[in-house]
Amino acid sequence: MREIEIEDLLGLDPAGRVILDIRPMETYRRGTIEGALNIPVNEIPERMQQLESEKTFYVLCHTGDQSMDVAEELSEAGFRAVNIKGGYRAFLKYQLEKLMKAQDAQKEERAKIERSLIKKFRKNIWCKFTKGINEYEMIRDGDKIAVCISGGKDSMLMAKLFQELQRHGRANFELIFLIMNPGYNEENWKMIRDNAELLGIPLTVFQTDIFDTVASIDKNPCYLCARMRRGHLYSHAKELGCNKIALGHHFDDVIETILMGMFYGGKVETMMPKLHSKNFEGMELIRPMYLIREEDIIAWRDYNRLCFIQCACRFTENCISCGGTQGSKRDEMKELITQLREKSEFIEMNIFRSVHNVNLKTIIGYNVDGKKYSFLDDYDEQG
Question: What do you get for the CA distance between the two ends of the chain, in Å?
């Protein structure tokens, strides 16, 4: 009478094996090896004629002792029968060891990703992250920050940077890694959760039906979706006791926003590094990735062989960055900046600095809180 180790059994083609679980039905229902057939040991004699004689039966009990007797009984009756050594207990032990090895491998991979932020990408990511926070005074002692995660590369990196800052920084602040599921398909939602587990990001999840709500909107559905998502994030963060939400906008987003305002809005404005909420009293929005370039985020992602969702909404087919054919205004700005970069490596930084160094004496008009000013207002006095 033959025996087989649990590891060897699991290496067999599931289609070509029959696992015969002889434990009581209630025990079998609490857990067994996937695909196992249950015939309790006391029913074996009367049901033996139902078994297909050309099959090989791998007999399973709890410890491997009772199954040895049944395997021998089946062999004497002309069946090909193999005892599963150690029984279901051996299977549980094998699964536990496999899980522990996977967890150890995941911890090692996570540590490598974290080290890369402090070492390999220290200059271009870590230092720019801390510089942005300090330069624009984004965090104060006692803050409770909702780090808003979409599942893309930017927000996932931001979450890791915040974890490192909390680990090594001096500010006394609290973090909640907040993610909204607005209606992701199951594949994208699984990828988000898998990445969070790999990176060690404890998600606080809430559900909305935003994707369903905007699915039938023809005009500016992306704008409406973004506004609704922002409102839900503010609202939920405030309910959790947060006074700030952090979004993963980066340096390239800032440059593109400046150009879009000029080309399509006829105005000079920028994406601010932080701002007070107009609709949620006491809440503030911060953008800690403000100084980090997208190319460096991509380099970090690719160096660590990570894969994140890009755009998981219902309109992905219309977005070039996600594989579609119809580009947005932001896509146009990306292309323009790429062309300008070929002419000068200083173009992007000069655009960025332009909104930091505004000379009001050379501005024809501007407005503050809805009140418009013209250079003519004090032109004669200056003369």
Answer: 109
Alpha-carbon Rg for the chain in angstroms: 30
Contact, 192 vs 179, CB < 8 A? yes
Q: How far apart are CA 91 and CA 67, in angstroms?
A: 14
Tell me the mean pLDDT per 10 residues along the chain, length 383: 90 87 94 94 90 90 94 92 95 92 90 95 97 96 95 95 89 92 88 94 91 72 78 93 96 94 91 94 96 96 91 48 56 90 91 92 89 91 80
- Nearest Cα neighbor of 309 from 288, 293, 291, 323 is 323
Reference 55, options 40, 69, 35; nearest CA is: 35
Q: Which of 41, 88, 30 is nearest to 62 (CA)?
A: 88
Rounded CA separation 282/244 (Å):
8
Identity of the residue numbered 105 = A
C-alpha to C-alpha distance for 206 and 184, rounded to whole angstroms:
12
Residues making up the chain, counted from first to last: 383
**Closest residue by Cα to residue 185 from 311, 307, 305, 320:** 311
